[in-house]
Amino acid sequence: MENFVNALNGVLWSTPVIYICLGVGLLFSILTRFLQVRHIKEMVKLMFEGKSSKAGVSSFQALAIALSGRVGTGNIAGTATAIAFGGPGAVFWMWAIAFIGASSAFIESTLAQIYKVKQDGEYRGGPAYYIEKGIGWKWFAVTFAVAAILAMALLMPGIQSNSIAVGLENAFNMNTTITGIILIALIGVIIFGGVKRIASVAQYVVPFMAIGYIVVSLIIVFANIGELPGVLKLIFSSAFSLDSTFGGIVGAAIAWGVKRGIYSNEAGQGTGPHAAAAAEVSHPAKQGLVQSFSVYIDTLFVCSATAFMILFTGMYNTEAPDGTMLANNLRGVEPGPGYTQAAIESVIPGFGAGFVAVSLFFFAFTTIMAYYYIAETNVAYLTRVTKSKWAMFVLKIVLLGATFYGATNEAALAWALGDVGLGLMVWLNLIAILLLAKPALIALKDYEKQRKQGLDPVFDPKALGIKNADYWETEYKKDKDQAS
Questions:
Q1: Rounded distance, CA 346 to CA 344, Å?
Q2: Which of 54, 89, 158, 179 could in theory staple to 238 by disulfide, Cβ–Cβ 3.0 to 4.6 A?
Q3: d(CA 62, CA 46)
């Protein structure tokens, strides 16, 4: 089983795929004239605009749901793994994929808003919806929906729950079975409460956990501030084959940086659009810009916090593809949260293990919550005609079962399965957004035009020649009239 999964990953994450991910992000950056730089001020402003409604959530709540999915074990364990197998240079490539990936996040999230629907009184949208309505390939939309359900409900929750269980076991000697039971009880209470409860939990927990983690990382950095020039030089020289120790593994640095970067920030993966579609906004580009900024929050803030803690304290190992140890500063410590724990312990003795365990709990817990929402949206897409309630119930049971299984079993296979799930979604979604970029680019141009005129932009798809944006054509004005 493990050999088959690893072979499949070898195809899904082969070198050409890595460069395709970089290329798509760069293409969208050029086509949007690097909106990720031009509109940073606008992104921050839009995060706090708008209110929730009966059908949708506020921009900030949609951001929080998306960040729930983006900020997970990838920020702690994934960043450490990238350094373990790609060296310090992998950090630069994580930054690079975040920067150019912000444009991919804009395209996919704007498309989700353009083609969203009002289904059973709630906004629904995402790749399956925009593939069917925008491209007209229902078979391809169904394929994505099935892949997303498999990835989000079955393959990936185990990665998050395993990290929680291992962290709590190492820090507090907590039995993994007990951790699994507690996890499924807490997650069950939230997911049986629907999207509103998920949004309510996310909007409070996500900012608290991210800010707390960054504050501790700043303490570690300032305690070792003399290392700043050396660490920055090491990151950049290793990324471009200029470092004598790590220069020989630049290919691994790119591969691991891009793979773990995409895993963490999810730009172009097709997960963020599900939350983006749920937002109550007057123009699709508004939520597209908000979701672009969420990529920055995830990678440039939270992943960087982990990377700096590890590199500033030197608490890491790096293994070359041929098995040679290029750095062996933590003998016997497996790649993952142990690096971050050791980094914090070196500055604040007795605090590292517990803090990382608690951080992992919050990061991974909210990610599982977001996974459920994404899976639920795709089940809703597949059952929108039959409106089958039992399908939603089965989904909840499957996700809770996968969560418990991950908490009580080995991590290696869980990570490999997660990479398969992620790889499938990335492949399918990248094809879709490449084919469908035009409506999102038109929406961006329209948004910028209205802003220059001093207006609060409102979306009119008919005037822009965008077809099948049914909600905006028939229901948006009706909803506004009812609200006023």
A1: 5
A2: 89
A3: 12
Directed axis angle between helix 284-296 and helix 59-70, to 10°?
40
**Is 60 exceeded by the pLDDT of residue 38?**
yes
CA distance 395 to 414: 19
Contacts of 336 (CB under 8 A, 6+ apart): 76, 77, 80, 81, 163, 166, 411
For the entire predicted model, the pTM comes to 0.90
Q: Does residue 259 surpass a pLDDT of 80?
A: no
The DSSP symbol for 248 reads G
pLDDT of 412 over the 70 cut = no
- Helix, strand, coil distribution of the chain in percent, nearest 5: 75, 5, 20
57: phi then psi, degrees, rounded to nearest 5: -110, 165
Structural domains in the chain, CATH included, are: 1-482 (1.20.1740.10)
Beta strand 325-328 with 317-319 is: antiparallel
Q: Please, are residues 83 and 338 in contact by the beta-carbon 8 Å criterion?
A: no
For 249-288, give one letter per residue: b (16+ CB within 10 A) or e. bbebbbbbbbbbbbbbbbbbbbbbbbbbbbbbbbbbbbbb
Sign (positive or negative) of CA dihedral 337, 338, 342, 348: positive
- Supply the Cα-derived Rg of the chain in whole angstroms: 21
The answer to whether the CB of 257 falls within 8 A of the CB of 87 is no
Q: Which of 172-176, 221-225, 462-466 has the highest mean pLDDT?
A: 462-466
**pLDDT, mean of residues 3-13:** 75
Handedness of CA 191, 195, 201, 202 (dihedral sign): positive
Q: Which of 90-99, 263-272, 408-417 has the highest mean pLDDT?
A: 90-99
pLDDT digits (tens, 9 = 90+) for 339-396: 888 999 999 998 888 888 888 888 888 889 889 999 999 999 999 877 777 899 999 9
Chain-centre distance for alpha carbon 184: 22
